[in-house]
Amino acid sequence: MTMQKEEIKLPNEIIEYIEKNSNKKGFEIMILHKIQEIYGYVPRKIAMELSRKLNIPLAKIYGIITFYHIFKLNKPGKYRISVCMGTACYLKGGEDILGEIENILGIGVNSTTEDGIFSIEIVRCIGCCGIAPAIVINNKVYGNLKKDQLIEILSEYTKIEGKEIKND
Amino acid sequence: MTKLKYEELKNMRDLIKKSNKNEILVSMGTCGIAAGGDRIYEILKKEISERDLEDIITVKKTGCLGLCFCEPNLIIKIQGLPEVGYGYLNEDIVYKIITEHIMKKTIIDDYVIFLPTIDLFAKNNKNEFENDIKYIFVWEPDKKKNIYNTFIKKITNKNLQEKIKIYSTKYIGMSNKNPIIKILPENIIYSNFTEHQIENIIETHFIKKTIINEFLLFSDNPNIKIREHNKQYNQIRVVLKNSGYIDPENVNDYINRDGYMALEKVLLNMTPEAVIEEIKKSGLRGRGGAGFPTGIKWEITKNTDSDIKYIVCNADEGDPGAYMDRSILEGDPYSVIEGMTICAYAVGARNGYIYVRAEYPLAIKRLEMAINKAKELGLLGENILGTNFSFDIEIRLGAGAFVCGEETALIASIEGKRGMPKPRPPFPSKEGLWGKPTVINNVETWANIPIIINKGYEWFSSIGTEQSKGTKVFALTGKVKNPGLIEVAMGTTLKEIIYNIGGGIFNNKRFKAAQSGGPSGGVISEDFIDYPIEYESLQKIGSMMGSGGLIVMDEDDCMVDVAKFYLQFTVDESCGKCAPCRIGGKQLLEILKSISSGKAEENDIERLKRISLAMNKASLCGLGQSSPNPVISTLKYFEYEYIEHIRDRKCKTGKCKELIIYEINPDKCIGCGACALRCPVTAISGEKRKPHVIDQLKCVKCGECYNTCKFGAINKN
Ligand SMILES: Cc1cc2nc3c(=O)[nH]c(=O)nc-3n(C[C@H](O)[C@H](O)[C@H](O)COP(=O)(O)O)c2cc1C
Ligand code: FES
Question: B19-235 is classed in which CATH architecture?
Fold first, then answer.
């Protein structure tokens, strides 16, 4: 590589990952996955550094990020609530589950609570249709959900953060 | 571990087979874990270790048993007892399993479940039964235990209780409207008898030792003939043969069940041509949706001149409502890897990719482990099994774009680009990844390969129908009693699937339709419930096999709403490259929205049909061509429902919220005011203790009042 060292502010973890896989063709998407794994989204600064490091135009990187639903441009909550809106979950009341979560947290889809603890997004099937309706919070799956279980589930997380959910 | 040569793999297999031990297999696919399987596993591990039982029994993780409705569940194999499963587990039952089943060798009543099929490898590990004891397992649809109690009484009367043990079960591998009994060790299943005939069953079966044909539903003895109308034992596990029986993270378990025997056979005794011939003759067709003959696809790639060729596994599983591929990858990753390796040998490829959805972290983890282990053992990488054949596999993650399941888009995505499809031809088999000939097959297709090589094309093609050979895995979900992963011979009817396997419709509602093929497929209405499920027949009725998502809908589901749901999905997922799909899809969705909110005109139905046709004819890729299918097929069978929405502004199911009218019945309303308090838009008013009214102009149809009222005073129309 012909780049100057001090320009690169990518974390070591990412640099190592890039270098370990430098012989692999078409690896950009995998690198973006890695970035998102670390930050929870793809920060603009990092995308710029990446463009420099890989020597590909920033526009191309953004082209990829915006094409694939999984990549996020904004920082999500500490706990990412993904509500499944696949067919099985939809038919079994996924919309009601979503509505209830929105009610409890007072935010809508693709937004984050003010304290940065929760964010809500919609996913299309997490492969747990047998226990629909389902949601995922970070990596934990909750299935066979009923509306009235949600307060309790969300409270598990607020408790960890030393907070409480207002229930009105 | 060092790399294995051919003879060493053989020796290893012989050794593993000899060391068959007692084991508990806890179902720990993604949904098993979600249901609490991980807790169950931890408790078992801890207890077995603390009680010094580790020499007696091993606790293992396994993939999906397919029985999502009774999770968490497990299978337990222990010398001297028949192999059984336990479902609906909780901590108490787990302790009981340890103290009763493992330590005292007594089966625990009530929680027993059976896998829906017989194990293809049953002969290898059929347990020895102590002292010729017979076991009767009873399943009763009404849970009243009449049959169970009568058996106990009769057996005790005859003083046979030491010889014949009776247990009631939670699930017996199939469903029927009448009680079912399963007799072990002979593995005979009887049903359709009455309480009064129990005496007769005991006399004839156990004392005279004669099979009772009249009641016989199943036997795994090929010499015993079952009456045609009794044949209901319809699941057969070919692809799922290992899922639930092996620890997917342990290659020894795979090898124990004939794993890598096919690769061994291919590398040592078969030419590439012979491998392709075998797959062609088997009649295997792609399981990813289109059903293209797999052998022919391989042959094209083999015959295309190129220095480099690629193998790709399509594990993008985009159908929102399906999880066959996830379960295969989580439960039996080596079978997919072995299948790809065999193909690489046949077509002359050196590199392969598995493109898997990022939404499946557990499948990715298990695949990574399996690939690394296979490399370590010389089953992947340079000089596989000491031959001069080399092949390597890399994992690439999808990133949440449905269109990337389409093969040309998937290839673009592996190349690191936006997942835009390309017009075909050229087909990937000639010009695929980085312009090189590429075989791309679906996960389930790959998982079929090793067993076809092992058991031969004749065995494989004896399953299924004339044009559709083998089995198909379905994710049976929606409004069935027993949702889960099932595998049936091609040609099985929807009725058998829903009623004998799925246990019928949830809450005994009425069946309305089943959707197969996801957003590219269509509905199957009640008129076709007896139709065989195979590629051609489904296409004929406007649906498609798809990859295996089978979603059952009941009388509470609105067909306009379902069509709208799928269109919303495809509009979100259209890549936007071609106009028919980008604009047409949006138009369809807008019209469906206006129908479901009562703002449509009657000629909108004609418009739906016209746009659908144009999209189907003019779209660039399969996504756009097939995305009108849910509209076309619901219109074909349920046009009256569309007309009801348009003409009468009515949605009978209440799914189209904007068409619902909530009204208060003044005769029932006591004026408690509870509904008015709950109403988010203060649309309800009235004096205390006097009937209230809803202001229809303010009402947002949220249904809160309906759910709140304890007096049934709110009418929903
Ligand atoms: C919009 C669209 C989505 C698709 N999604 C998948 C998918 O998720 N998984 C899959 O295996 N095939 C999918 N296919 C089919 C693939 O294009 C291709 O036919 C298949 O991977 C070939 O493998 P097979 O012959 O083993 O079925 C999709 C096709 C289209 C048009
Ligand atoms: S539809 Fe929600 S998990 Fe599949």
Answer: 3-Layer(aba) Sandwich (3.40)
End-to-end CA, chain B: 69
Which CATH superfamily is B251-459 part of? NADH-ubiquinone oxidoreductase 51kDa subunit (3.40.50.11540)
- The string of DSSP codes covering B337-388 is HHHHHHHHHHHT--EEEEEE-TT-HHHHHHHHHHHHHHHHTTSSBSSGGGSS
Q: Scanning the structure block, which residue is given the tokens 């509209």? A: B631
The ligand placed nearest to the CA atom of residue B319 is: 1
Q: Which ligand 2 atom minimizes the distance to the CA of A128?
A: 3
DSSP-assigned states of every residue in B474-494 = EEEEESBSS-EEEEEETT-BH
CA atoms of B44 and B99, how far apart (whole Å) = 11
CA A153 to chain centre: 19
Mean pLDDT of chain A: 90
The residue range of the domain holding A117 is: 79-160
Q: B622 C-alpha vs ligand 1 centroid, how far in Å?
A: 9
Ligand 1 centroid–CA B422 distance in Å is 14
Residue B658 structure tokens:
């904007």
Q: Give one DSSP letter per residue of B180-220, joined into a string.
A: EEEEETTTEEEES--GGGHHHHIIIIIIS----GGGEEEES
For B292-308, the pLDDT digits (tens) are: 999 999 999 999 999 99
Positions in chain B whose pLDDT score sits under 70? 1, 20, 121-131, 228-233
Alpha-carbon distance B700 to B683, whole Å? Answer: 9
User: Which H, E and C letters describe A13-76, residue by residue?
Assistant: HHHHHHHHCCCCCCCHHHHHHHHHHHHCCCCHHHHHHHHHHHCCCHHHHHHHHHHCCCCCCCCC
Query: What does pTM read for this prediction?
Result: 0.92
Query: Is the CB of residue A86 below 6 angstroms from any atom belonging to ligand 2?
Result: yes
Name residue, tokens 């087979």: B17
- This model of the complex carries an ipTM of 0.90
**Contact across the interface for B320 and A86, Cβ inside 8 Å:** yes
Q: Residue B136 forms beta bridges with which residues? A: B166, B183
- Cβ atoms within 10 A of the Cβ of B402, count? 27
Of the candidates A20, A36, A67, which is a domain's last residue?
A67
Q: Which tokens sit at B390?
A: 């080399």
The pLDDT score that the predictor gives to residue B79 is 86
Q: What is the CATH number of domain B661-716?
A: 3.30.70.20
Ligand nearest to the CA of A129: 2
pLDDT band at A8 (very low <50, low <70, confident <90, very high): low
Residue B712, token pair as written in the block:
């049934």
Indicate the pairing of strand B112-113 with strand B164-171: parallel
> DSSP label at B531?
S
**Cβ of A129 under 8 Å from any chain B Cβ?**
yes
pLDDT at residue B227, rounded to an integer: 77
Domain B471-554 fold is Ubiquitin-like (UB roll) (3.10.20)
The predicted-structure confidence for A42-98, as pLDDT tens digits, reads as follows 999 999 999 999 999 999 999 999 999 999 999 999 999 999 999 999 999 999 999
Q: B303 CB contacts (<8 Å, ≥6 apart)?
A: none
Task: Tell me what pLDDT residue B18 has.
Answer: 81
Amino acid at B601: E
Q: Which amino acid is at B561?
A: D
Residue B13 gets which letter from DSSP?
H
Interhelix angle for B559-573 vs B579-596, to 10°?
Answer: 150
- Domain co-membership, A141 together with A91: yes
Is the pLDDT assigned to residue A159 strictly greater than 70? yes
Q: For B647-703, list the strands marked E by DSSP.
A: 662-664, 684-685, 693-694
Q: How many domains does chain A have?
A: 2
User: Tens of pLDDT along A126-156?
Assistant: 888 889 999 999 989 999 999 999 999 999 9
**Is A75 in the B-facing interface, judged by CB distances under 8 Å?**
no
